């Protein structure tokens, strides 16, 4: 077995790869010509779900394009210098924010740092928003365990955070009638192994329930447990609730290095950031694609992340009438894995999402999309629907999954470093699992912190967060009442999504404020409709300038430096 | 609930003209406008060329708009600004509109309803521009707003994709304000804008126009740093190996306009797949009785003057329309070499003057327009040149014609 693996590795990279196993880690070194080969070597060396991780240091001959820590904030100040939080959470994605919120149940000093200008900028806003039943997850994986634990938590979580969540269910559509018996037989397995009940749906009923399915849909299994949510609304709501309960979130703040001492195990004494040095008792890494780099800083690198890009298309709201549940399809039958390649998903905001695909990439922050990938995404799904039309596209985007070579979550304390907890390798179904992962990390954190004395609970913890009003979804009378209190709620600035000036101002006056177009878009949706900001962006921009007390030309689309305007016209004339 | 004979949604040139003509028929009229001021998109059009037909003068968009606003105010029509139509319910004898304004929510009854909601610009996402999503990718109309209304420069080294009129106007406008326009790139093999704009905006300013070329990808993380251009074939498919990178800080798109027809669609109006506006008769009445469409919401025109004309007709017809009156229509079809002809149908009542607009499907050097009523040719008209970018107007006299026994009115273009 081992020989055949080395043979495969040798064949892959003409004998230039060295494989070593020590301390429960498989370490790959050497050279290959292309990044794809390094990934393939890592996947060959790893066993799916194994706790023996692959650390991949194979260097492709082509040059590395980006800084190992990705783009870093330009900001330099000392606002956090000398802070001694009980817990320092690195990463403001859904995982980091959910952990921060759980930890505020206890009386702790919690600091979350995020290198981007907002929370939910990477994978947490760049996914399909499906709360999965766990169809294609093998038993024994942490993914399966935390997916199934996280899924049922969503009803209460959405209520507490006051965000929309719908259990629309998922149809796993079969195209071959011959698959009927095995599918019925699999019901027993699925009913025991996924979140929520599973039913068999005959062709006639299926087409009655989902008239938008094509004739090729022969029958389906219906998974009641599937739901849809807005992943960035969720992350922002978690962050806001954590702040309300006493946690601090520092944006534009990157962990750059750590000071370690050795007392038996290694110990993190300080974390250096661009905003000063922090001296935390415990570090929790929820750094997504950069989790490996954080582990390296902490002297505790026992896994590797290989970024895997997924691209999706958002369709106009007018096609939403064609679809009532998530659909994905099975072409063949392969035990309990359905083919990678996403599905067709109604979004909680009333659009339809098609995708995502899965492409191994080298760069962790290259969110570009490409024509061929998205054509393939459509090509893949068009068989099962009779209405899917690329002409209804209003937007497309990509996200990058933080996959380990074992393709499973890592939720554990440091192996060589005492005061770090890793929530790493969080890829799909990370969104579904997030509430359960947060509970697990909270438990581990409290266990560690209890050695310094009893951790009392936070008597003023309030799990409820009130969302700002969304006028268009309110009954007429309630809407009228709010407008009479605040006339800005009556003035619509975004006509595609029917969003008022008052709602846009609200977004800038929340516990976690944001003064960028994309930040406001993630909170209240202007510029995400069919005009893609053509009409509303120029109206919102002056509001941001006024609220943030900056010049219009300093208002950014998103990341610092993404300025939209160049200042008053005519200035350039002197240059001629 | 306040009641009006005619309610018009949109106070651009179409809506304002509709209001004036409806008032001339003594109807009670309300114009609903989402923005703070009437005038629509003309408010940001500081270039001239407006009103050559309607006023026989060369006006700027703003001047044209102010004349229309003045006429509307004098007519006695009400204009309610900062108001947004949130929902429309069709009743047997009219429509109920739910409005959101700074005063609260209110309901308005309209015996007949005119949609003068204009059009929107196609975006980068709708023409498959890929790559990254930095700041600096915007539509020409948005760039025009930034420059002419906010007084801010949206780019210093600009690439313009698409040769629609707004793109051409903006190429000149940006140049005048000190920005460098590197070129206008058009995926089709023919330019999209009016001939006068090709000369006055590009040639006069030495801005190159590159045909059969499109933008494949955008580069840059914070701000646009460049684009990858690619040559395309007749089907607009990129030709591998022809990619070329160009550094710039803004990509401005002028790749087409789409009528805003969501309200019409929600009310069940039949939509024309070619014009993307509702199917309507010569008065602009859609397939929903009492619901009218005019201006760019009906079909996208090149000239504000035509938009005003279309509003006038709809306003007059909406004012005299009585519920229950559903006229029988004679279908109008566009055949050979025609992209579309509007109206898509006419009432089966002989009239002296019916205005049609058509667009050819490709450039024709010398063509004859033939119009047939049933089997009988009723019009032949010669054109020296026809371009798809330029809409043509033709007036038919159908008095004394038997419109009841024939099946259709057919337009076709014969190339010479």
Task: Describe the model.
The complex is a heterodimer of chains A (576) and B (416). Helix content of chain A is 28%, strand content 22%. Chain A is an alpha/beta fold. In chain A, the strands form seven sheets. Chain A has a six-stranded mixed beta sheet with strand order 13-6-5-17-25-24, with helices on both faces. Chain B is an alpha/beta fold and 416 residues long. Helix content of chain B is 19%, strand content 36%. Chain B is built from seven helices and 28 strands. Chain B has helices spanning 13-24, 61-75, 140-148, 165-176, 195-202, 262-266, 304-320, and strands at residues 2-9, 29-32, 48-50, 59-60, 78-80, 83-91, 94-101, 104-115, 119-121, 130-131, 137-139, 157-161, 180-185, 209-210, 213-219, 226-231, 244-247, 250-253, 257-259, 291-293, 329-334, 338-342, 345-347, 354-360, 364-373, 376-386, 392-396, 409-415. Chains A and B meet through strand 23, helix 12 and helix 15 of A and strand 7, strand 10 and helix 3 of B.
Secondary structure tally: strands of chain B = 28
- Placed side by side, the strands forming the largest sheet of chain A appear as 13-6-5-17-25-24
Unreliable spans of chain B are: none
Low-confidence stretches of chain A: 333-339, 572-576
Computed over alpha carbons, the radius of gyration of chain A is 24 Å
Tell me the β content of chain A. 15-25%
Describe the largest sheet of chain A. 6 strands, mixed
Identify the biggest protein-protein contact and residues per side. A-B, 63 and 51 residues
**Average pLDDT of chain A:** 93
Q: What distance separates the N and C termini of chain B?
A: 59 Å
Q: What Rg of chain B is obtained from the alpha carbons, in whole angstroms?
A: 22 Å
Shape of chain A: globular
Mean pLDDT of chain B: 96
Work out the helicity level of chain A.
Answer: 25-40%
The portion of residues assigned to helices of chain B is 10-25%
What summary fits the major beta sheet of chain B? 7 strands, mixed
The counted number of beta strands of chain A is 27
């Amino acid at each position: 077995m081992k020989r055949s693996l080395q043979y495969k590795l040798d064949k892959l990279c003409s004998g230039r790869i060295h494989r070593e196993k020590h301390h429960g880690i498989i370490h790959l070194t050497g050279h290959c010509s292309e990044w794809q080969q390094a990934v393939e070597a890592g996947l060959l060396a790893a066993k799916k779900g194994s706790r023996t991780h692959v650390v991949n240091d194979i260097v492709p001959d082509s040059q590395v394009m980006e800084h190992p820590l990705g783009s870093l904030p330009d900001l330099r100040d000392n606002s956090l210098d000398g802070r001694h939080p009980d817990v320092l959470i690195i990463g403001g994605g859904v995982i980091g924010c959910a952990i921060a919120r759980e930890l505020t149940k206890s009386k702790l000093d919690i600091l979350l740092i995020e290198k981007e200008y907002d929370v939910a900028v990477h994978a947490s806003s760049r996914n399909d928003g499906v709360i999965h039943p766990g169809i294609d997850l093998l038993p024994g994986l942490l993914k399966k365990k935390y997916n199934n634990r996280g899924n049922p938590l969503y009803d209460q979580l959405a209520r507490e955070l006051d965000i929309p969540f719908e259990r629309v269910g998922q149809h796993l559509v079969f195209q071959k009638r011959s698959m009927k018996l095995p599918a019925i037989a699999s019901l027993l397995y699925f009913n025991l192994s996924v979140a929520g009940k599973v039913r068999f749906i005959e062709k006639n009923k299926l087409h009655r329930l989902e008239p938008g399915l094509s004739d090729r849909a022969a029958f389906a299994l219906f998974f009641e447990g599937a739901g849809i949510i807005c992943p960035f609304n969720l992350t922002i709501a978690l962050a806001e609730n954590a702040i309300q309960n006493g946690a601090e979130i520092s944006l534009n703040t990157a962990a750059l290095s750590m000071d370690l001492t050795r007392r038996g195990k290694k110990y993190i004494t300080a974390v250096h950031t661009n905003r000063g040095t922090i001296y935390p008792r415990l570090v929790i890494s929820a750094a997504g694609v950069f989790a490996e780099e954080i582990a390296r800083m902490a002297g505790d690198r026992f896994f590797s992340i290989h970024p895997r890009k997924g691209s999706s298309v958002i369709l106009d709201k007018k096609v939403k009438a064609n679809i009532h549940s998530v659909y994905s399809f099975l072409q063949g039958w392969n035990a309990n894995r359905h083919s990678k390649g996403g599905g067709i998903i109604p979004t909680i905001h009333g659009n339809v999402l098609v995708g995502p695909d899965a492409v191994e990439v080298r760069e962790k922050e290259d969110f570009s999309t490409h024509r061929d990938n998205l054509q393939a995404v459509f090509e893949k799904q068009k068989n099962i629907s009779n209405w899917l039309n690329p002409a209804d596209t209003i937007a497309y985007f990509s996200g990058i999954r933080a996959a380990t070579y074992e393709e499973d979550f890592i939720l554990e304390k440091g192996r060589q470093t005492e005061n770090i907890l890793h929530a790493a390798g969080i890829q799909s179904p990370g969104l579904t699992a997030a509430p359960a992962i947060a509970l697990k990390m909270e438990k581990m954190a409290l266990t560690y912190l209890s050695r310094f004395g009893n951790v009392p609970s936070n008597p003023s913890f309030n799990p409820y967060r009130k969302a700002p009003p969304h006028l268009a979804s309110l009954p007429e009378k309630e809407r009228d009442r709010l407008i009479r209190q605040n006339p800005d709620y009556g003035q619509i600035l975004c006509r595609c999504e029917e969003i008022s000036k008052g709602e846009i101002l609200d977004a800038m006056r929340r516990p976690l404020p944001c003064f960028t177009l994309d930040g406001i878009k993630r909170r209240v949706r202007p510029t995400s409709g069919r005009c893609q900001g053509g009409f509303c962006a120029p109206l919102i921009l002056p509001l941001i300038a006024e609220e943030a007390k900056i010049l219009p030309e300093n208002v950014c689309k998103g990341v610092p430096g993404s300025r939209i305007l160049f200042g008053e016209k005519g200035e350039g004339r002197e240059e001629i | 609930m306040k009641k009006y004979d005619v309610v018009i949604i949109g106070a651009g040139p179409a809506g304002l003209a509709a209001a004036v003509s409806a008032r001339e028929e003594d109807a009670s009229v309300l114009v609903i406008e989402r923005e703070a001021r009437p005038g629509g998109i003309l408010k940001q059009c500081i270039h001239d060329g407006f009103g050559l037909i309607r006023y026989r003068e060369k006006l700027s968009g703003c001047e044209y708009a102010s004349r229309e606003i003045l006429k509307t105010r004098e007519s006695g029509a009400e204009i309610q600004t900062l108001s947004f139509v949130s929902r429309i319910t069709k009743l047997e004898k009219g429509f109920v509109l739910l409005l959101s304004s700074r005063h609260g929510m209110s309901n308005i009854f309209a015996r007949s309803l005119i949609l003068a909601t204009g059009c929107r610009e196609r975006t980068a996402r709708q023409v498959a521009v890929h790559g990254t999503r930095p700041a600096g990718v915007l539509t020409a109309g948005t760039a025009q707003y930034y420059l002419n209304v906010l007084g801010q420069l949206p780019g210093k080294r600009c690439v313009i994709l698409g040769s629609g009129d707004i793109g051409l106007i903006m190429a000149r406008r940006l140049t005048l304000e000190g920005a460098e326009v590197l070129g206008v790139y058009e995926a089709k093999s023919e330019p999209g804008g009016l001939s006068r704009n090709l000369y006055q905006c590009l040639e006069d300013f030495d801005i190159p126009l590159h045909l059969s070329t499109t933008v494949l990808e955008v580069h840059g993380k914070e701000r646009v740093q460049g684009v990858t251009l690619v040559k395309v074939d007749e089907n607009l498919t990129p030709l591998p190996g022809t990619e070329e990178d160009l550094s710039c800080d803004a990509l401005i798109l002028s790749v087409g306009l789409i009528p805003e027809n969501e309200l019409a669609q929600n009310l069940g109006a039949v939509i024309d797949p070619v014009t993307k506006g509702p199917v309507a008769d010569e008065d602009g009445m859609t397939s929903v009785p009492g619901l009218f469409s005019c201006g760019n919401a009906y079909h996208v025109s090149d000239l504000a003057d035509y938009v005003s004309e279309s509003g006038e007709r709809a306003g007059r017809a909406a004012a005299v329309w009585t519920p229950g009156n559903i006229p029988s229509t004679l279908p109008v079809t566009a055949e050979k070499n025609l992209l579309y002809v509007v109206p898509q149908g006419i009432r089966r009542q002989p009239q002296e003057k019916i205005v049609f607009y058509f667009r050819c499907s490709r450039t024709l050097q010398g063509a004859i327009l033939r119009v047939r009523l049933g089997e009988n040719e009723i019009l032949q008209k010669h054109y020296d040149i026809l371009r798809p970018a330029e809409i043509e107007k033709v007036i038919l006299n159908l008095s004394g014609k038997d419109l009841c026994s024939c099946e259709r009115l057919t337009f076709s273009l014969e190339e010479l």
